[in-house]
Amino acid sequence: PGKKVLIVYAHQEPKSFNGSLLTIAVEELTKQGCSVTVSDLYAMQFEPRATRNDVVGGLHNPEMFNYGVETWEAYKRGCLSKDLVEEQKKVQEADLLIFQFPLYWFNMPAILKGWMDRVLVQGFAYDLSKSYDFGLLQDKLSLFSFTTGGGQEMYSKEGVGGDIRYLLWPMQHGIMHFCGLKVLEPHICYAPEAVSEEKRKEMLTAWTQRLKTLWKEEPIDCSPEWYFK
């Protein structure tokens, strides 16, 4: 009880299966006494592009624009754009970050990738000397909950898509672990569009059940072995 959760949600339709997963998470975690905040990226019309507009006022080097350097300097000066400051505040306050989305092209949708690109700036989420186990967002948990188009057998070592864990390497390891967050086992709903209504209900029930004991879970071993062994 009293834990703070941020759910970053990337789906266009509230009545979608992803929308149902979001609703369940909000209801179940709230019932546990958690305080839940949702960043509904499409509803917010979140800007996914990393541009000059992310810096308010003058540039550190007006001669040549370097996004990484400029946002780092702007973060230190308190001169990032308002939407970024708001999202960073939500991240800062959260004990757990849940990312809810449909898998697009073996990856997260562009709007969610844009959130990662823009919100997790140097100085806020990591520093050159402070990354991975020493990242600036230590003591926070993260969880990727997503749906796929293909069935589970497609995403196995023997399947045409290869092991689903290969796809999680850039997201979980390259972003979350890099910024110091601990990573919980992903929650994957395979091909909800291709299964029976009954199977979909089972998937939703499984998510509800998992959320009930979520805080007792141990994070995964953040090493290449988890992904590639």
From TrEMBL:
<keyword id="KW-0597">Phosphoprotein</keyword>
<dbReference type="InterPro" id="IPR029039">
    <property type="entry name" value="Flavoprotein-like_sf"/>
</dbReference>
<dbReference type="GO" id="GO:0003955">
    <property type="term" value="F:NAD(P)H dehydrogenase (quinone) activity"/>
</dbReference>
<keyword id="KW-0479">Metal-binding</keyword>
<dbReference type="InterPro" id="IPR051545">
    <property type="entry name" value="NAD(P)H_dehydrogenase_qn"/>
</dbReference>
<dbReference type="GO" id="GO:0001512">
    <property type="term" value="F:dihydronicotinamide riboside quinone reductase activity"/>
</dbReference>
<comment type="function">
    <text>The enzyme apparently serves as a quinone reductase in connection with conjugation reactions of hydroquinones involved in detoxification pathways as well as in biosynthetic processes such as the vitamin K-dependent gamma-carboxylation of glutamate residues in prothrombin synthesis.</text>
</comment>
<comment type="similarity">
    <text>Belongs to the NAD(P)H dehydrogenase (quinone) family.</text>
</comment>
<dbReference type="GO" id="GO:0046872">
    <property type="term" value="F:metal ion binding"/>
</dbReference>
<dbReference type="Pfam" id="PF02525">
    <property type="entry name" value="Flavodoxin_2"/>
</dbReference>
<feature type="domain" description="Flavodoxin-like fold">
    <location>
        <begin position="3"/>
        <end position="211"/>
    </location>
</feature>
<keyword id="KW-0560">Oxidoreductase</keyword>
<keyword id="KW-0274">FAD</keyword>
<keyword id="KW-0862">Zinc</keyword>
<comment type="subunit">
    <text>Homodimer.</text>
</comment>
<keyword id="KW-0285">Flavoprotein</keyword>
<dbReference type="GO" id="GO:0005829">
    <property type="term" value="C:cytosol"/>
</dbReference>
<protein>
    <recommendedName>
        <fullName>Ribosyldihydronicotinamide dehydrogenase [quinone]</fullName>
        <ecNumber>1.10.5.1</ecNumber>
    </recommendedName>
</protein>
<dbReference type="InterPro" id="IPR003680">
    <property type="entry name" value="Flavodoxin_fold"/>
</dbReference>
<keyword id="KW-0963">Cytoplasm</keyword>
